[in-house]
Each structure stands twice: as structure tokens, then as C-alpha cells.
Design a protein that fits this description.
Elements: E1 5-10, E2 16-19, E3 35-40, E4 43-48, E5 57-60, H1 63-73, H2 76-84, E6 87-91, H3 97-115, H4 129-142, E7 185-192, E8 211-218, E9 221-229, E10 245-249, E11 254-258, E12 260-262, E13 265-271, E14 281-285, H5 295-298, H6 300-317, H7 331-339
Antiparallel strand pairs: 1-2, 1-6, 2-5, 3-4, 4-5, 7-8, 8-9, 9-13, 10-11, 10-14, 12-13
Helix pairs in contact: 1-2, 3-4, 6-7
Amino acid sequence: MTPGTVRIERAPDGVWVIAPDDAPSVLDDAAGIDVAVLEVLGGHLSWSVLADHPVPVAVLDDVASAQNWVWAVFGEEVALAVAAGSGRGVTVEPARPRVAAGARRLAYAHWAARWWPASTIDAIPPLDEGLLHGEIATLVEECDLLVDGDDAVVPTGPALADRPRRADDYALAAGAAVATLPSTLVLARGTTGSDWRRYPPGLVDASERAVSWEVVRAAGNTTVRVSVVAAPGLSEPVPAHVRPHALIGTASGTADVALQLSGDAWSGESAAPPGSESGVSVDVYLPGFGVTGHADDGGPEARERVRALVRRRLRRASETAPDDGPDAPLLAEIAAAASDSDF
């Protein structure tokens, strides 16, 4: 199909799909960390925040309800093809361009609330939740023709993190190992990142250098120590049910470590599993939260693409020229860019 066109087809489970080529949908086995989803009347819309084209995928479980907005977002030709039950290479011409752009912007704002990679180590400032929630509320009103379910409700509640500290207040050097006594032998150590899908936002610094570990031998015992840089501005008390764990793995065994927050870092230690002298893997996670998926959906390369997007948006947000395009920075991004020099 050519750009700006979609196909309309019925999926095996009975839902209807309106989709451009090579675009993510809620029917995929695992959603990537770049996927923005919006719950709408009769179904869901989804976009990749990394894609240049603005045309979403629509998965419809109630076509009659969805037809209230399909014409606005995709155009009358697509709405007629949906009514007919099929179509390929159907041209997308939104009848309400502002509604279509607003829906995409609202989905992006919800995405940013979940996946924004705030990091003291990488100098990516967090978004102000008050500004972000306020803009989501405005966008929900502008998109009342289609938005539905949880996405029609403005997020509220206290953030895990308080106001962010400056980078020069940051007490834990990235990748630094826990101090060891002279009688302690360090057998192995390393630094890595974490899978953002395994815990909620606001707990852990999003950098690929946020997790450090070391295997030490002292008094006849071998121990693994883990230190994880906390999300910018996170401070105690943190409720027990949102305290992360670290799953330490080797080829021969695993150990699960509950982490405790002290200052700017989560830390914990455990008896080393067999084979740890050769190095370990460390998986930071919150018990009962999220799902594991393919590395391509949320691994280091995918995370770096998201960081690159965020840095581009922050640079754009720092420009003084007026920017009212459909992908213009959110108010929270503008505020974050303004605070970047102090972060």
C-alpha cells in the first residue's frame, strides 16, 4: 500500500482492523515500549511514537460505536469501507484533522506518563506530573468524540518521586560498586540497564548504567551485591508493595533480592548462586508487575531509540520560535527542557 492508505479486514477473533502497513496494534503478541495506545469508543487506536506517519491502527470490537468517530479520524472513504466490510489501499483523509491530531497527541501524552526515560545519569529530566495531567485533561475534552474508558479519566494521585534534584546533588556515581573492606576479594563486577516493562515509572533511573553489581568473597562466603540508581527525585517512604527486587542469575542458578532505598539508590545483597564467580545477570523488577517480552520490544536498542526521540523533543522544546504543529512539545516537555540546565 502507498503512504496514507489503510486496509480494512476482519481478524480471526472477530474484531475489525483498520491498519496502515508496518504499524503496531493491540493484537500484537507483545507491545513495544514505543507503542502509544488510546482507548476509544468501540475499540483502540495505536501508534508508534517513533514513526513519522500519523495514521494509527484501529482495532474495533464494536463497529457501530466506532463509526461515530472513524469518519473524523480516517475519513469518509474509510468509514464506508468499514461499513462494507473490507477494503485495501483506502485513502485516509480525516474529516476532522484537529480531532485526529488531538487523538494522537493524547495517546502520546499517556505514553509519556508511562515510558518517559527520566535519568539523572543520562541528564534526561523528568516530566512535571501536574503539567502533564493538566494537558491530558485538556486533550480528553478536545477528544470527547472518541476517547473512552480509562483513557477518558485524567490520571491523579501522588507521584512516587518528589521534585527532582540537580545532577550535582546526585550522591551515587553511576556504576560505582559498594565499598569493600581490604579483606574482601572482588571476584566479578559489572554495570547494566533494566527492562522498563518490569516496573512502574518513577522507581528506577532509566539509564543503561543504572544497575551495578559485584560478586565478593569474604570470610569463606560468596555474596552478590546489587545497587540500582533510583529515579530522579525519588525519596522515602516508598510503600512496600512498590519496592523493586533484583533477580540475580547464572547458568547454574538464581537468587532473588529485595531492594531497599537508601539515599539515591536501591540496594541489596544475597548469597551468590553457583557460578557467579564468572559474572551474573541482574533483572530489576517489581513482583506481579508487567510482563516479559521479546528483547526487540523493550531491550537496550529499543530503549536507546526512545531516548533519542526524547532528546530530540527536548531540543525542540527548548527552541524559542512558536511551535503549534501537531507534534509540538507538550507543556511538560517545555518545562523539562527549561529545567535541563539545572538538572
